[in-house]
Amino acid sequence: LSLAMISATVFSSGIIQAGAAVDYYAAIQSAVTGAGITDSTYLIGGSNELAVLGTFETNPAVSNTVVDVTGQPFTKAVRIQSDTAFPNEWDVFYRRQINSAVKKGDTIWFQYYIRSGGDGTAEVKTSVKQLPTYADWFESQGASSPLLSYGTEWKKVSRIVALQNDSAPGTDTRSYLEMTMGTKAQTVEIGGVSMVNLKNATGEQIQALTGLYHYEGDEYPAGWRDYAEEMIRQNRMGALNVNVIDKNGNPFEGATVEVATTKLDFSLGSCFNSYALSTNPKAQQLAKDVFNSVTIEDDLSMKVWKGDWDGHMGIPWGKQPATTAIHFLNQNNIDVFGSAMVYPGWGSLPNELYGLRNSPSAVNQYVDNFIDEVTGLYRDKIKRWVVVNEAYSNNDLQRILDGDNYATAPKNSIAHWFTKARAGAPNTTLTYNDYNLVTGKNPDHLNYVKNLMNYLKTQGTTVDLLGVQSYYTLANMESPMEIWNRLDDLQSSVNIPVFFTEYNFNTGNKNDTVTQTLEYNYTRDMLTAVFAHPSTRGFSGWNNHWTYEGKTVGGFYDENFDLTPQGRAVRDLANKWRTHKSAPTWNGKAGFMGYLGDYQVIASYGNTMTQATVSHKNKAGTSITIQLDAVSPVVSHCPFSNDGTTLWGIDPGHNTL
Questions:
Q1: Whose CA, among 26, 122, 225, 320, lies 20 to 30 Å from 357?
Q2: What is the Cα gyration radius of the chain?
Q3: Cβ-count burial of 320 within 10 angstroms (0-12 exposed, 13-18 middle, 19+ buried)?
Q4: Alpha-carbon 199 to chain mean position
Q5: Which of 269, 234, 264 lies closest to 599, judged by CA?
Q6: How many whole angstroms separate alpha carbon 131 and alpha carbon 174?
Q7: Between 309 and 593, the higher pLDDT residue
Q8: Do 548 and 554 contact (CB within 8 A), yes or no?
Q9: pLDDT at 643 (0 to 100)
Q10: What DSSP letter does each residue of 113-133 carry, written as one string?
Q11: What string of DSSP letters covers 35-79?
């Protein structure tokens, strides 16, 4: 049936009538105006409730009626009753098109009320899908909206999002609201559906209107914060014990010991394009000042390497700028993260490889040659490397090499790419990178990655690191506690260390205080939660160059290489997690609790000084002995003063007494 036929079938019974009260939508408009928002447009709503309900369509195989509602802000609801389960959840739907154009950066406020109309729970998936990719407005990177359960009491659902793309009705970018519910026999009631384009409303205005500039756990005090600090103490800190001896080998009493972190044993990074790191002193200084890890943005991917992207954004890409940037990073002791050897969808592959698509052996040899070339050139210069990126949604090479049943067939191509990379870069941390692992709620995608990791283990193929992309919007802010739950689930399934490879929080780049504060706070709390969890090895930003109408959208720095609120949160935590302490020796010893990492240690007495470096990466503790070219003024093996009553000096486990 066409949409028009479905609409006629559903509403030909005369249930939908004009003349209902307009109080519900008038109240919403009054609230919008009361928040100081003078430029807004209804995308759904604005007229009487019955008229709005009449703009939706549903499957004629199920019954739908309009029912009266009391005790709620709205007075009418649609009751959709399905007497049987359907093969797919989308076989029963309640949907309508978005009939007004919207622009990238517009803020959309969407709300509705829902409940089970029967004795049990209702299961419904709600999304706003946009052609041509059917990406959901309220999920990132094509992630699927979750199937949620609702009880018999009315539940209000309210969400906001800053749009990432333009959309216009009647074009190949059109969008539609869809609620799907075919998973079981059930009765669902839906009312009070409204969608308002708030356009360029400020964060203050949006918060006053919706209260949605908020995420679970953002309050002070919050129990998770104390727990995170304890986890950090257990997982990221250890005792650094410094033994100072004199020129005769005796314990040196009263020397001053100073310890300072030079590099944290946890990657705090950002992506940079190679051209900026090769030519821009401000970009170089930013990398040195704030980050201990940098991801080379796209220059090392096959498509860019082969010249199909040169001139993108008006700058050169590929081998030459990448080589210069990697040299700069190596010289400044900044870890290099390469991305990505094999990004196996045609949109990310060279044109000449596409020309070989009818010859699996030629495709295989082409990819092998590329892996050999880049690993031969950089080898130990790159500490971590994404070998395969997003294989669930980018599978053109797998279809050629593993067959059309690539999703369930043995992943021989992926195993081969990892084996090839291992041969070329044996000391590099080899990584698989994907989304929908800690953000998004597509179980098929998540299970594919879990099964892939476990299959590779059975083949003797070692994946050293699992890269998890973490793109957030105002609509999908996860709580720190939920991040821990998802990391726990990953570890129970695959037991591979995790690196948050692509963090970005897109609020639509509003420059008001409320939005900027939210970006800072959410990034600070997310990074704190990630740092606390024992499975994680790093956290890095992405999309730092992305600008819209001259403004940077998300990322850790703007187009001028000045830190954004997100970047300032990373910088402040990086400073917090650097140990810099000093203490005198007692019995020739000084002890410190310090964050794990590389340290400079200085022992001094008078004009005599010795300095050393030590790698302190053991939670159980690290010891170093330093010799001063002097004679200790006191030889004492007792921590008491001369009268034998006063304890003095340093307790090696706690810094001071």
A1: 320
A2: 29
A3: middle
A4: 26
A5: 264
A6: 6
A7: 593
A8: no
A9: 39
A10: EEEESSSS-EEEEEEEEETTT
A11: TT--S-EEEE-SS-HHHHHTT-EE-TTSEEEEEE--SSS--EEEE
**pLDDT digits 0-9 by tens, 117-147:** 988 899 999 999 999 988 889 886 556 677 8
Distance CA 350, CA 317 (A): 14
pLDDT for residue 61 is more than 90:
no
Length of the chain: 657
43-56 tens-digit pLDDT: 999 878 999 999 99
pTM for this entry: 0.87
Helix (H, G, I), strand (E, B), or coil: what is residue 585?
A: coil
- The one-letter code for the residue type at 626 is I
Q: What is the pLDDT of residue 143?
A: 62
CB < 8 Å & 24+ apart, contacts of 216-224: 216/479, 216/481, 216/482, 217/479, 217/480, 217/481, 217/525, 218/521, 218/522, 218/525, 224/479, 224/480, 224/481, 224/529
Tell me the β-bridge partners of 87: none
CATH numbers and ranges of domains, the chain: 3-210 (2.60.120.260), 233-266+577-657 (2.60.40.1120)
What are the structure tokens assigned to 557, written together? 């720095």
The average pLDDT across 203-209 equals 93
pLDDT tens for 519-548 read 999 999 999 999 999 999 999 998 765 454
Are 242 and 589 a contacting pair, CB within 8 Å? Answer: yes
